[in-house]
Amino acid sequence: MLCRTVIVGCLASLAAGLWAGSARAQSPTETCVELKTVREDAAAIRDLIKTEIDRFPTHRSADEGCGSFLRVEIIDLSGTTYVTGRINTQVPHREAMTDDLATAIERMLRVVLHNDPVRLRGPRRDNLLRRTLRGLKHGATFFGAEAYQVMSVVDGELEALPGIAAVVRREAQDWHLAARLSFAHRLADPPPGGLELTGRIGFGLQALYFDDPLADTSFYWGIELGMDHQRMAGPAPGYGEGVEDEYSQTGFAVSGRAGVEFFRTTTGRLDLFAQVTLPVFATHDEEGRIADTWLPGLSLGAGLWF
Fold it and tell me: How many CA within 13 A on the CB side of residue 276?
């Protein structure tokens, strides 16, 4: 009798747990709405979009605490009205208004809400780590190439080296994670008689935060942790009078990066950036005494993303 009671109790608990889990999984995802239009009835259109969202069992319109973000843009072109919608990091979907605006909005929402990565992943959870991992899984991967100038003060003089970089980046809604390999080198031979920076190679992992991830243009800032390789040339008094030699040193570096990215709703993007690199080591040559200095760097450049 006791065993039967225990078994029945366990089954009841299991059924309750499954029912609760099912109820959570079917709960609608709270969705924030951003509308961009020049129409005078923008407020009424935004209310219409929120009402249409509430008609879907998978989503519910909200103004805060949102698990998904919907951006809607309405433009008039050559006598035709177009409704474009984008939810989270998905590709935008555009509908032309053939009947009335409400019908075009309904058709657009039917496509973008069905492809919401938050719903495809599972029920929304108010946890930053879970949202970030979910965004990484359903986000987009971009490959980029950068051209830049890195400037450093060497022996009291400002020097600039041209450089290029290759970057791969994974998008996670407003956060992006990237790996960057950079190479800067002096194109002409350094003049004799003074300390010169002839090359700089870096590798780092970046975490970037975008101010408006759904906008076509967005500012961003972030941090990079990695390695910095510096190559110097100049007099080497430790090896003898009038002797010149080269010296290189590698160490850990921390960088801060800020910039603005254009054409984010297209497949090709333009990036303008500034990056400050702070090595946590001093370039010090004990044998040849070529260099004994600390070399932070400022990089200014542009990149293309695909």
Answer: 5
**What's the chain's Rg over C-alpha atoms?**
28
Task: Give residues with Cβ within 8 angstroms of 169, minimum separation 6.
Answer: 141, 142, 143, 144, 176, 177, 178, 179, 206, 208, 305
Tokens of 69: 């973000």
3-state secondary structure of 130: helix
Sign of CA dihedral 77, 78, 81, 82: negative
Q: Are strands 59-61 and 29-36 parallel, antiparallel or unpaired?
A: parallel
Residues 130-186 have pLDDT tens digits of: 656 655 665 678 899 999 999 999 988 899 999 999 999 988 778 889 999 999 999
The structure tokens listed for 179 are 């790996």
Phi, psi angle pair for 231, to nearest 5°: -125, 125
Half-sphere exposure of 98 (CA within 13 A, CB side): 6
- Residue 245 and residue 247: Cα distance in Å, rounded? 7
- The model carries a pTM of 0.58
